[in-house]
Amino acid sequence: MLDFNLSPELIDLRQRAREFATNELLPIAWQYDQLDEFPLDIIGKADAAGLANVGIPTEYGGMGYGYLEGVILTEEFAAACPGLATSLFDNSLGMEPLILSSNTSLKGKYLPRILKEGKHIAFATSEPTMGSDVAGMRCTATDDGESYILNGTKYWVTNGGVADYISIFATVDPGKSHEGICAFVVEKTWDGVRAGRPIPKLGQRTSNTTAIDLKNVRVPKENMLAPPGEGFVLAMQTFARTRPAIGAFAVGTARSAMEFAIDYAKKRRAFGSKIGNFQAIQFKIAEMYQKVETSRLLVWKAAWEADNGMDPNVNASVAKMYATEAAWEVVDQALQIMGGYGYTRFYPAEKLLRDARLFRVYEGTSEVQRIILAAHAMGAYQPVMPPLEDLPLEHLGDRLGDRSGEEEGPAWRCRICGYVHRGELAPEECPYCFFPSNAFKKAGG
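User: That's the sequence. What structure does it adopt?
Assistant: Structure tokens below.
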């Protein structure tokens, strides 16, 4: 039986996250957005409050929270500042390949450090010439006996400038596509590793984003997360479990935009009335509310699947695609309700709009999500209805067919236009589309 009620523990977690977001993140969001900087200490504050690194398994000293707890936290953080939420979340993204990896000694080495020493870990698949096309990476990993030598540049690395460790995906041979991809944990202090300058961005300016350059970086084989041929699978497994969080970013952002728009509509007067009394504004708010609620349910479902050991790939794509596109629409309409004021930097809508635009791009663009969903719908999806040519609708022959007198017999369906004929034999020609008798199929086989 379905139950959409949160447990008392989840309600308490959400309330603590909400208070942290409004007390710690919201007051500094616009200041750091203007500075185009990330306040590193905020991760330490979240960690001290028990709201960061929550996914570290209990066997490594962590709280062992699931993906549902993660998306609840993320929505609340994003409601205050999507950019700060991105940087708070990125430790979870960086750790996910490590948690999913079968390399238990590597987990035992790094997860306690992240938890107890406040270390930061980033995630790096993208490169200057590839993003969603993970199999197209060019960063190379050359086997050198006891080590691999990494060469190349990773790009769009969130927290790349502040991370101590990086989950790096590389390939032993670019010509092997996904079959050549492997993954490692790399320490940023190692020789040959350097971070680029923070990348200037339209939005998400309170999130640190850099390139990571790798020149002859020697990585011990014990730091391997996935051997060649298994790295691509690990990357996809990671995305399937983190894409719901991107949906949660979108939910939090859209929710705040809606709340600001409602507040404005209740107070702004035009044409002798509060604009919230106008049906045009009410309809906008109704659609905002519908999109926020729908998005949250999709995000929760995908997170629940991951928590229960199911493959969340399809529903993670549904949640990511719908929620991120809905957030853009909600924030845009919120700005519309606020009119000229919404377009100024005195009001929050313009920042939310800039921040929300990225959601449809990172961790797989909306177009990539459509490719995933189309492949599922056209391939693995199991339909309930029979094929069109096998529809059990013989009575249509009586209503739409041309029966000859009282002729009885089986039904024959034209596989081209759907016309149904009754008789012992198929007609020589379809009277509607004129295809010959071999276009007909006997109903029921």
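The longest strand covers residues 147-158.
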